[in-house]
Amino acid sequence: QVQLVESGGGLVQPGGSLRLSCVVSGFRLDYFAVGWFRQAPGKEREGVACATRADSKYYIDSVKGRFVISRDNGKRTVDLRMDSLKPEDTGVYYCHTQPYWGQGTQVTVAS
Questions:
Q1: 63 strand-pairing partners
Q2: Mean pLDDT score, 75-100
Q3: Measured between alpha carbons, how far is residue 58 from residues 11, 16, 30, 35, 72 in Å?
Q4: Residue of 43, 68, 44, 46 lying closest to 55 (CA atoms)
Q5: What is the CA radius of gyration of the chain?
Q6: Contact partners, residue 61, CB within 8 Å, separation at least 6
Q7: Are strands 10-12 and 105-109 parallel, antiparallel or unpaired?
Q8: Residue 62 DSSP label
Q9: pLDDT digits (tens, 9 = 90+) for 23-70
Q10: Cα 53 to Cα 32: distance, rounded to the nearest angstrom
């Protein structure tokens, strides 16, 4: 059974940091690209960061220089380090590898 389980969300002040973690099971992580998506209230889900099978990394412009995606195939984890957080980063963050999704973890950036 394929599972993706996120953790690490929470409430943080603007300028703060969080580290999200996704633990995967039921498939070989090294066979797939993985990504983090987010969905803000009233908005569509958007891709934030992606790590390919070869571990090339891609980010949307709004998080470049602030977020870092990393994968550990042996530990079956995909992390998202988020620094200099802004209120507009608020949303539910999801771990994704086609066609599977985690349940999401809430990130709220507010003073």
A1: none
A2: 97
A3: 26, 22, 17, 9, 17
A4: 68
A5: 13
A6: none
A7: parallel
A8: G
A9: 999 989 999 999 999 999 999 999 999 999 999 999 999 999 999 999
A10: 5
CA dist list (Å): 34 to 56, 66, 79, 104: 11, 19, 10, 14
Identify whether the C-beta of residue 51 lies closer than 8 Å to the C-beta of residue 71: yes
For residue 57, report the phi and psi dihedrals to the nearest 5 degrees: -125, 140
- Give the residue carrying structure tokens 């889900």: 45
Token duo for residue 66: 């602030």
Residue for token pair 């539910």: 92
Residue whose entry in the numeric block shows the structure tokens 């389980």: 5
Structure tokens at 50: 């992606």
